[in-house]
Every structure is written in structure tokens, then in C-alpha cells.
Design brief:
Blueprint lengths: L1 H8 L1 H41 L3 H20 L8 H8 L14 H16 L7 H13 L13 H16 L3 H12 L8 H19 L18 H27 L4 H8 L1 H19 L8 H9 L8 H16 L6 H19 L4 H10 L1
Helix pairs in contact: 2-5, 2-6, 2-7, 2-9, 3-5, 3-12, 4-7, 5-6, 6-7, 7-8, 7-9, 8-9, 10-14, 10-15, 11-12, 12-14, 13-15, 14-15, 15-16
């Protein structure tokens, strides 16, 4: 009774809880708004390409160059996927006063605008990784309104914000909670961990309330699976592992700058290089009628729902190249959505080449891999 009375009489503690929950709702709304903007931008691009087939050849290079110029000029910390910035802010070696360099409301707004610009250009980028930086910036801003004795650390706000981005971007509250448990378990504060979990759930529920029980990639309906899937499944895992490693090596080499003429040109003329990357992606968009650019959600959903497939093997490689060039151009954007799409393509390719009856299961294995 004494503990309950003390709990109810501490108005400042309840106000801190209201602040955290309020910002969690704002984070969920920010992620939902971001998703609607980014998806709407790419849908507009796809509509314009369907109307004028040559449209990407002019529009994509120009807008890619503009987005890279704005990023390099004013918002360098908004570059990339956004996850490395959140990890840098979470790093114990990062001084408290320097965390705003990696996550803030200003960077969150810039991230939304720049990634939406990349989607409007028709590049092969995702919004899931950037959503983590956006929602982390929103939650991190809550620290200004908390009392000094709240017991809620900036690290917890960052973890909750990043997890809220996962929960809202994928419409999966449980996914956000798992992410938070993994991060918070390293240095958990028992006094406020429950509050952080509630905030993550609130963000996820906001996404569900606004967007409904939406599945980005469609529903995976796998029937009975026997030992016949063992060999095709092994090939899917092997191919996805090799492609994942190749993509990582390419991106690391591209951004570190290798001693070749392409990296030298990128260092000297970054805006022109971005335009050339945009032109290459535009050619892929024209060849595939925009199916191999963007986040890849629509094509993956089509693979899961329809047994027919266009451009087997070729499409997967075109999506791979478009994703690499979009990142190399320097446009802010995520890799998670395109990676899932590439994995789905690998699964569908193996099923097609081996005439496997476990097509949907192989696509699911490819996405997971």
C-alpha cells in the first residue's frame, strides 16, 4: 500500500511517462508519414514511366544529382541508411554532447525529404533503415522535456526510437520489441525498461491503426514441405550468402575509394558521378518497367502471389546492380527492403531453374537469407 501510494503521489514521474508515450506516438506517426511519402513518391515515378517510357532517362539522373548535392552541402549526417548513425550515437565512446550530430529532429526531417527524393527519382533504395534514424531522432528529442531524476537515459530513448522505427516501418510491433530487448539487454535499466517497451508497442500500434494489418511483401502461404526442399534450399542459402557478401564488399570498396578511375572520378566530381549512376539505374528502370528499382515490395508480392515470373535470373542481377549503384551514387536510402527483394528473386530463380514445387517456401528462404 505504501509503495502504491508513493507511486500515485509522484506526479513528476507520471508526467515523464506521459512525455515518453507522447513522443512514442509521434515517432510512430513520423514513420507512417515517411512510409506514405516514400511509397507515394515511387508510385508517381512508376506512373510517369508507364506514361512516357523515356521519362527516367532524363528525370532520374537530374534528381539524383540534386539529392546528392543537397546531402553533401547541408546534411552529410543524413547520408547512408541511417542505422550506422544510430549505432554511432549509441556507442558509449560517443560524448553526450555529440549525439545530436547523428540523430536529431532536424536530421529526421532531412532524412525524410532526401529519401523521398531518392524514391521520387526511381532509385533502388529502401525506407526501413532510414526510418530507424528518423524515429530515433524524434524519441531523442524527448530528453529536453524529462525531469533530471526521471531515470530515463538518452541511450534508452535512442534504442526505443530505433525500435519504434522497426515496429512502424514493417508494421510489426513484436519486431521492434525484439530489437529493443537485444540492445537494452546489454545495459538495461530496470526502472524504465518497461516504459520503453510500452513506447515501442505504442509506436507499432499507431502504424497498425493508420495503415491497417498491412503486409509489405504479401502473405507467405507455405504448404507441406518435405525433404525435396533440402537441395534447392541449400542453393538458395549459398547464393544469397555469396550475393550478400559481394554487395557488402562492393559498398565498402566503393565508399572507401579504391585506386581505380571510377572512384577517382567520384572523388573529383561527386555530383556528376551521381548523375551517371542515376542514368544507369534509369536504364534498368526502363528495361524492367520499374520492377527492379524502388524498394521491391510490389515485385516480391507478385512473386509470392503469382507462379509466373518474368526475366528469371536476369531480374535478380539487375536489381542487385541497381541497388549497388543507388548506394554508390551517395543518395540517402536503406538496403534492407531491396535486400529482401533480391533474396526473393534468388528463391524464385532456383525454383524456376530446378522446377521445384516448393516455390513459395524457397522465396521465403531467400528473403530470410
Amino acid at each position: 500500500y505504501a509503495n502504491l501510494r508513493h507511486e500515485l503521489s509522484d506526479s513528476r514521474r507520471w508526467l515523464d511517462r506521459v512525455v515518453v508515450m507522447g513522443f512514442a506516438v509521434l515517432a510512430g506517426l513520423a514513420a507512417v508519414g515517411f512510409a506514405l511519402l516514400a511509397d507515394g513518391a515511387f508510385d508517381w515515378f512508376a506512373g510517369m514511366q508507364a506514361r512516357w517510357w523515356w521519362f527516367p532517362l532524363v528525370w532520374t539522373p537530374a534528381l539524383t544529382a540534386l539529392v546528392v548535392w543537397v546531402t553533401r552541402r547541408w546534411f552529410k549526417a543524413a547520408g547512408g541508411s541511417g542505422v550506422p548513425q544510430v549505432l554511432a550515437a549509441l556507442d558509449p565512446r560517443t560524448p553526450e554532447e555529440s549525439r545530436h550530430v547523428f540523430v536529431s529532429l532536424k536530421l529526421a526531417a532531412a532524412k525524410v525529404a532526401l529519401v523521398t527524393g531518392g524514391c521520387l527519382a526511381g532509385l533502388s533504395i529502401g525506407r526501413q533503415g532510414p526510418s530507424v534514424q528518423v524515429t530515433a531522432g524524434v524519441m531523442f528529442a524527448a530528453r529536453r522535456w524529462l525531469s533530471p531524476n526521471s531515470g530515463i537515459t538518452p541511450r534508452e530513448l535512442l534504442v526505443a526510437g530505433g525500435a519504434a522505427g522497426i515496429a512502424a516501418a514493417f508494421n510489426t510491433p513484436l519486431g521492434g520489441i525484439v530489437f529493443a530487448i537485444e540492445e537494452l539487454s546489454r545495459r538495461i535499466e530496470t526502472k524504465s525498461s518497461g516504459l520503453m517497451m510500452a513506447g515501442i508497442v505504442a509506436s507499432g500500434l499507431v502504424a497498425v491503426s493508420v495503415m491497417g494489418h498491412l503486409s509489405l511483401f504479401g502473405r507467405v502461404r507455405v504448404g507441406d514441405v518435405g525433404w525435396s526442399i533440402a537441395w534447392p534450399g541449400f542453393l538458395v542459402a549459398l547464393a544469397c550468402g555469396l550475393l550478400g557478401g559481394l554487395m557488402a564488399r562492393l559498398i565498402i570498396a566503393s565508399f572507401l575509394g579504391m585506386p581505380d578511375r571510377f572512384c577517382a572520378y567520384r572523388r573529383k566530381w561527386p555530383i556528376r558521378f551521381a548523375a551517371l549512376c542515376g542514368l544507369a539505374v534509369a536504364v534498368i528502370a526502363v528495361l524492367t518497367q520499374t520492377s527492379a528499382v524502388g524498394g521491391g515490395h510490389n515485385h516480391t508480392r507478385a512473386l509470392l502471389e503469382d507462379s509466373s515470373q518474368s526475366l528469371p535470373v536476369v531480374w535478380t542481377w539487375l536489381k542487385f546492380v541497381a541497388t549497388w549503384l543507388s548506394a554508390w551514387a551517395g543518395v540517402p536510402g536503406g538496403l534492407f527492403g531491396p535486400a529482401l527483394s533480391i533474396g526473393a528473386g534468388v528463391g524464385a530463380d532456383v525454383a524456376h531453374l530446378l522446377d521445384s514445387p516448393d516455390r513459395v517456401a524457397l522465396i521465403a528462404l531467400g528473403m530470410a537469407a
